[in-house]
Amino acid sequence: MVPAWLWLLCFSIPQAVLEAQLAELSVEVPENYGGNFPLYLMKLLLPREGAKGQIVLSGDSGKAAEGPFAIDPDSGFLLVTRALDREEQAEYQLQVTLETEDGRVLWGPQPVLVHVKDENDQASGHQATATIEVSIVESIWVPLEPIHLAENLRVLYPHHIAQVRWSGSDVHYHLESHPPGPFDVDTEGNLYVTRELDQEAQAEYLLQVWAQNSRGEDYAAPLELHVLVMDENDNPPVCPPRGPAVSIPELSPAGTEVTRLSAEDADSPSSPNSHIVYQLLSPEPEDGVERRAFQVETTSGIVTLGGLPLRAGQDILLLVLAMDLAGTEGGLSSTCEVEVTVTDINDHAPEFTTSQIGPISLPEDVEPGTLVATLTATDADLEPAFRLMDFAIERGNTEGTFGLDWEPDSGHVQLRLCKNLSYEAAPSHEVVVVVRSVAELLGPGPGPGATATVTVLVERVIPPPKLDRESYEASVPISAPAGSLLLTVQPSDPMSRPLRFSLVNDSEGWLCIEKVSGEVRTAQSLQGAQPGNIYTVFVEAQDADEPRLSTSVPLVIHFLKAPPAPALTPAPVPSRYLCTPRQDHGVIVSGPSEDPDLDSGHSPYRFALGPNPTVQRDWRLQTLNGSHAYLTLALHWVEPREYIVPVVVSRNAQMWQLWVQVIVCRCNVEGQCMRKVGHMKGMPTKLSAVGILVGTLVAIGIFLILIFTHWTLSRKKDLDQPADSVPLKATV
């Protein structure tokens, strides 16, 4: 047989062989940690006999540790109670022992070296150290020799966790797990975990590894390995179910308990993972207000009222964060909800919405029972029973001139007149009305808003103005020009107070009335009126000194058919033209020159375009004086041609229609009209000139062809004649 100590030499992870001396553990703490304290650093693997003794934490000298460290006796976790400064001390050497009451050491000492990590370094994960046990965090293998692992790391399975070696070539490995677990070993001595582990299902495994030869004989006793499944913080706190709303009376003092939260954590009760603390998330404190409406006790979860008062009728949803791992970094959390309803008490006195009403003017002949004013009071309480009000006249009603009417459940009270008023007896009244709560008031007493003052002015009665008729009628032809006089409205008594007249309900804007004289005239042409139609307006007459004194009578207008308008030959108008696009000049139109009344001082002419919509769209006519008007284009562009523009000229009841001839043409840059030139009689056109030229060229061509043909034929005849036939020249 091979000695058992050879097995220990084959491991790739360091292990201790002496029980009296445990391997030193090491852990890092970030410098100036800004999270919650205490901060849990690492779990110590205390023996099961820990319940019979007490855990003692000391320094390397054996004395009690003076640094900010402690041991949680329930979970066995080493924790730090405050932030550490690396410049003050870079590392701490601690020793942990398990002792009896009489000082006998049951376990240990376990040395622990705490390194204060520089805050500029990058933290790479959790660190743990041990000697004779392999530790696996749920679903993640963490070797007991120093190694950094990221939190919640997931790996592929099977996952290598260790290796044993036995010298020699004929070596086979066999593994047994107690209780059976997801572990395996291959032919090379590599140990594997084949699936994720669950600490709640099984917290510890004992692995036995045999080294055998090919005949199945063991080389040595089995190697025993303890595998501890460390509790992973994978269960968040579970808040209690949201129940009915908690009722809190208004004006409850600070510190009143609202509710008690009790969240549960499915992690191991002895683990810091199940240590739950509470933090209030909502409602948040208002800006600029230091006090809060609610507070929560961190460890107990008791929710109490804060110093900020609550208002009745508020429905507040409290959000409380339940955090495990004592609220430290890496813990899980859940949000608990608590609904709070603030109930009402009768702590608000009713008040009027307006403390001063009026002055209200009443004529002295107003009948008793007349409504003077309606006052409105409000109560900030929410309960209907707390909003019931009682009203009374506190002063200003010694003669019983006024009275109050109101409904029991209404906040409105009516001030009515009970007796006749007299301007001579009392030209004004000030009535003070007070409101009180029917139920007993628990808060402060009524304030200044509990009273309202109504000021009433008594007016002396003056009869309204009276006109000479109960109604007025007038007839007018639909062709009547603007300014035509229809009638005159007058008061019944010429010696009465002066009146001011106005028209009401003149929807078409056809009429106008002179404010002082009462003359009713047409304000514009009666376009759209039809013969036989009736147009009704009202004439309102107000007292010039007392505008509130007024009267109104109807005025009925009957539209008549327009009489035929005699056409006059327009006065000679110099031939004028207008440019398109439009330029700044027009045509002057004058009234009939044959009318002798114009020179005798009669009213001037009125000019208007004809009723044709196209004419009114394309042209604009502006009156220059009593005898002339100015005609221009209304559009920027019109078709260049000759236009006949109808112009209606009227004076009093007479009317003429003129036809103004206007030539619209294109103009050059100098404003001169460019008119189209027609064909001159006796002159050839372009087409005829081209025909003549082409005919001349054809005739010349034909003539040249004839000459060339004749010359060719003559020469050919001379060449065909014999030589002896040539006549001899005669000699003399």
From TrEMBL:
Q: Where in the cell is it found?
A: Membrane
**Span of the secretion signal?**
1-20
Q: Which UniProt keywords apply?
A: Calcium, Cell adhesion, Glycoprotein, Membrane, Repeat, Signal, Transmembrane, Transmembrane helix
| A GO CC annotation given for this chain | adherens junction
- GO annotation, biological process: adherens junction organization; calcium-dependent cell-cell adhesion via plasma membrane cell adhesion molecules; cell migration; cell morphogenesis; cell-cell adhesion mediated by cadherin; cell-cell junction assembly; homophilic cell adhesion via plasma membrane adhesion molecules
Keyword flag Repeat: yes
Designated name of the protein: Cadherin 16
Instruction: Report the source organism.
Output: Saimiri boliviensis boliviensis
